[in-house]
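Work package 3, deliverable 3.1, input record:
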Amino acid sequence: MTDPTVDPREALRSAGLRVTEPRLAVLRALEPAPHAAAEQVFARVALDLPGTSVQAVYGVLNALTGAGLVRRIEPAGSAALYELRTGDNHHHVVCGVCGSVADVDCVVGHAPCLTPSHDSGYLVQTAEVTFWGLCPACRAAEADGAEGDEPTRASSSPVAAATPVATGPTA
Amino acid sequence: MTDPTVDPREALRSAGLRVTEPRLAVLRALEPAPHAAAEQVFARVALDLPGTSVQAVYGVLNALTGAGLVRRIEPAGSAALYELRTGDNHHHVVCGVCGSVADVDCVVGHAPCLTPSHDSGYLVQTAEVTFWGLCPACRAAEADGAEGDEPTRASSSPVAAATPVATGPTA
DNA sequence: TCATTTGTTTTGATCTGCTCAAGAAAGTGG
DNA sequence: CCACTTTCTTGAGCAGATCAAAACAAATGA
């Protein structure tokens, strides 16, 4: 379901949404850029559909998220990101330095943390796993002693300060 | 380390921070209220140390977080929460309806999701697991058909709309 | 094809959470 | 007790996101 390869019009319609240019443009914008922030989506949409407002993009993203055509993730310390992969509940790795995000198809063979001991009487519906670490670029930059080739994005992102809470992974 | 039972002054000093009234007040405020937002912390601090500014609380919380005395969590769709448990990298259950948070001592006997298949070349340092579900109160309210006793907090919280992205947990 | 109805987009304001900068105040080591 | 450094206060300001009303366009039925 929600396979991005199918006709977007089809997907929209079957989700009960009307087919409009802004929505198609947003879906198009999301295809080459997984994990795009609203602002980036807006930038891309503005390219092939000038005259679209930022609020329209927000509205479209909310509508698509509500309809399940788009998934919204919110890594701590940065704006919300949107992606097209909605069928599977996969997870994400976030680079603590540059903020880049990559998908992680949950690996441990068996559903892992997904069954906490019902600890406080909560009825658990979803588990959301976010890995924090270093992306290849920032890793290389780190190894070179902070003077080699800088990674793509700005290195002074607020993400860096707000993230790696505890270092030693615990069971 | 960072045992809340030890003298807070001691903890502050050994973290290289000066012992000030606002900081002690923040630590005191955090004790009875785990997972408190900055605003709540400020409210409590204002009670036993009037004249403290909101920004001071933000500054103190940042300082304490930086020093490792306080841990900061940021559930999607809500403000940052602060807690005193810092030694262990435990996880959290968030109620999708009322936004309440509870601790979850990661249950699976062995480090669970913590070793993704190094998927995209990322060097993983930390794993952060957030469970989404229903707290006991909201569960009861739901069962009563949305007209029984309402849960404690506002039921129209923005958290509700922004959360349960995918329903079926995946491995 | 036209008018209707329903749902979207635009426009502009507003809000929350949080950060930054400057000077005043307080803690710390001698 | 003094000087030095850190921290707090005050006030402004920013980014991300939401809300409300009005203009507008797409599906539906006559």
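Residues 17-18, 20, 22-23, 51-53, 55-56, 59-60, 63, 158 of chain B lie near DNA strand D (CB under 10 Å from a C1').
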